[in-house]
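Entry 12.
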Amino acid sequence: MKFLVDLPLGGLAKWLRFCGFAAENRRLGGELPPPAPETFILTRQGTLKRLNRPDLLFIAASDPEAQLREVLTALPISPRQLQPLSRCSRCNDRLAPIPREQVQGRVPEHVFHYHEQFFECPRCRRVFWPGSHLPVILRTLQESLKE
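Predicted 3D structure (tokens):
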């Protein structure tokens, strides 16, 4: 499943990437791309309702976590479809494992000594690791799926 997310919903795009979904964040105008299989367009622009497209989802909430709950409730998404923290939260590319010795000097010293597993974005070269934010993200995803 893929998402085209209106630019003002950048926080939602980031949460969808945390879930492992491809979520392109860009400004939507009056003309939308043609419908594509398994691709949904997310917006808060009421003027786009006139298009009456089944792939268009209007988001009411203003908080990104509440917006995520709206998406997970409105669409047929199961926990099996989630691949948490498998994408770059900035670039949207899939993360690739990187050997620990290659991140020395690229991450804070305490992170290097405390963690064994690291991932890199092939586009922006940002390094990720399962830090203290991971349980919070996973808990938010689980709670969103329950609703």
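Annotation: Helices lie at 10-19, 64-74, 109-114, 133-146. The first helix runs from residue 10 to 19.
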